[in-house]
Amino acid sequence: MTWLEMLAVFGAGIAAGGINTVVGSGTLITFPVLLAIGLPPVTANVSNTVGLVPGSLSGAIGYRRELAGQWGRVLRYSSASLLGAAVGAVLLLTLPAGAFAAIVPVLIIVALVLVVVQPRLSAWVRARQGEAENVPPHGGPILLAAIFGTGIYGGYFGAAQGVLLLALLGVFVHEDIQRLNAVKNVLALLTNGLAAVIFIVVAEVDWPVVALIAAGAIIGGQLGAKVGRRLPPNVLRAVIVVVGTLAIVRLIFG
Questions:
Q1: How deeply is 231 buried, as exposed, middle or buried, from its count of CB atoms within 10 A (0-12, 13-18, 19+)?
Q2: Mean pLDDT value across the chain
Q3: What Rg, from alpha-carbon coordinates, does the chain have?
Q4: Helix or strand or coil: residue 1?
Q5: What is the DSSP letter of 135?
Q6: What digits encode the pLDDT tens for the residues 86-142?
Q7: To which H or E segment does residue 213 belong?
Q8: What is residue 132's DSSP assignment?
Q9: Over 90: is that where the pLDDT of 212 sits?
Q10: C-beta separation of 49 from 158 below 8 A
Q11: Stronger pLDDT, 124 or 55, i.e. the higher one
Q12: Fewest beta carbons less than 10 Å away: which of 79, 84, 139, 168?
């Protein structure tokens, strides 16, 4: 890499670390940069996943206050995220390149619709649960299945994984959106972390690229936590919709 390319990868890491902490979709910043400097798509995806793990950890630590009293919830969701991530990582290494290209924009569109209608849908779910004798704790099996599916996607590619997770949590869990964002950050960390371990063992990793992305993402994760927790719920939802829409445009039109 030239010095200019190194600077571009480092800057992309900062931006991705920040946006992953606030919403998600940081991969849509780093991945095109890695392709632009000449990395093959699979190597770029693998190196990007490994490089963003420290940024995910930084963002999760930045949101640690909002995790207070939620560790039971996090533990329930973690198994679904980790299992899904393992499946997704294996799919990346075995399926033909671009196998998920058609469905990824659809998943993001669904996530954005869920974010927009989340307040009303959440109220409807809460009303239905209030009529039931036994209310499913922490969202019930439907949410766990959805988190598992999101984990598969996260292990395979992961762009807008945070949008999907935050939309699902907002619908099925009756909690402040900032606290749900903290849970989302932990689940994204686990998903990316497990996928990264698998990639390090069995795939080709570009370590100079990983180091640059990781250094930038750590800085971005802390910046994102400071900005994200100050956003009102409606503003945060608006940011999610904007980022998700840009993600769809980037994926469809390259």
A1: middle
A2: 83
A3: 17
A4: coil
A5: P
A6: 999 898 888 876 676 677 677 778 777 777 776 776 677 566 555 555 556 677 788
A7: helix 207-228
A8: S
A9: yes
A10: yes
A11: 55
A12: 79
